[in-house]
Amino acid sequence: MTVTEHDIVVIGGGPAGLAAAIAAKKSGVNDVLILERGGELGGILNQCIHNGFGLHTFGEELTGSEYAARFIAEAEELGIPYKLDTMALDITPERVVTAVNRTDGVMTIKAGAVILAMGCRERPRGALNIAGFRPAGIFSAGTAQRLVNIEGYMPGKEVVILGSGDIGLIMARRMTLEGARVKLVAELMPYSGGLKRNIVQCLDDFDIPLLLSHTVVDIEGKERVTAVVVAEVDENRRPIPGTEQRISCDTLLLSCGLLPENELSQSAGVELSPVTGGAVVNESLETSVGGVFACGNVLHVHDLVDYVSEEAALAGENAARYVRGERCEGGEPISLRAGNGVRYTVPSFIAPERAGDKLTVRFRVADVYKNAFVCVYCGDECVQRRKKRVLAPGEMEQVVLTDRLFAENPGLSEITIKIETA
């Protein structure tokens, strides 16, 4: 077993890991190592051949693979080393990483700081409790995307999609363009979980129906899917008897949510949020374990990769400060509370002394709101109130807290972000 030491170890070589490593290197830490379990850097972006990436970061529209290529090129130009086909097995609270690959065998890496950037995975069929056998033709939307875009295989010809997350919406369009017939997209909730632009460009433009408050209650077929039964659900998300409709198809794609990959985080003793499944972090994106930072979809699921890169760069910069011993000591942290209509906030705690001139707080709402207000309260006083024409769970929101706010509210213990209607 080889034992090595590195200033910063980044777990994951996708968009978050690349941005974090680049930011750490630019912040003056030369000894940065990326561990990537796949055979190439870039993560999930390599199979995203559709455009819509990079508008915030580069000011132009790129495909996912083009977006990833720019970060890969920058990482290589900076000389950041990485190990591919390398699985991180364990992280201790003392930041000792155990990893394995074919070349080095089992490795023990002592890190000055660890950045968690493992991304997320799709919720499988087993978590959905859908009745029926286990026939061929059932895929997660991300698996289908890889089959079509990377492997060159078509999963099927007549398709039903369960879940209206962004991957499912994009695959509705992709399957249609490849000659399949997408019969419908069923969504359990009374609203879509994807971006509005994807609903328009991927469903409306191709006349693919979206059935809200519907779910799949049965899958027919033993060797191969032959049909699914879709039913309407009530306000408790339970199927309504008598609303069933049988849809013949040979393929069912599941786009029913993403789960942050936090098994490694748990082994390190990191506190996880019961809402997001990601780590509970402070203003520096540092977890409850000192020197362990989290960013990207392993922290909370993002809608835009541009925000992933922005967030990961902050994690890389703060990890560099931690390693160099340059971070100032924070006082009593301010708790960030998710109030009415807000599901969670990232971060969860703020040390104003380390927050800088401005701090971006990201969150998602719990329902669809029209002509509502995003409000920030310091105690009982509303210090920010911004009107939004539409708020939806599928789109991430954010507020910016400035150093002036903290200066004007000394001794503050809690900030609440809530949604108010007129």
Explain what you see.
The protein is α/β, with parallel strands linked by helices and 422 residues long. The protein has three domains: 1-121 and 257-327, FAD/NAD(P)-binding domain (3-Layer(bba) Sandwich), CATH 3.50.50; 124-256, FAD/NAD(P)-binding domain, CATH 3.50.50.60; 330-422, no CATH class. The chain has eight helices and 26 strands. α1 (15-26) links the parallel β1 (2-11) and β2 (32-35). The longest helix is centred in the C-terminal third of the chain and has 20 residues, at 305-324. It starts with a strand and ends with a strand.
Overall shape: it is globular
Residues in helix, %: 10-25%
User: Mind telling me the CATH superfamily name of the largest domain?
Assistant: FAD/NAD(P)-binding domain
* CATH hierarchy: architecture of the largest domain: 3-Layer(bba) Sandwich
Task: Please summarize the sheet with the most strands.
Answer: 7 strands, mixed
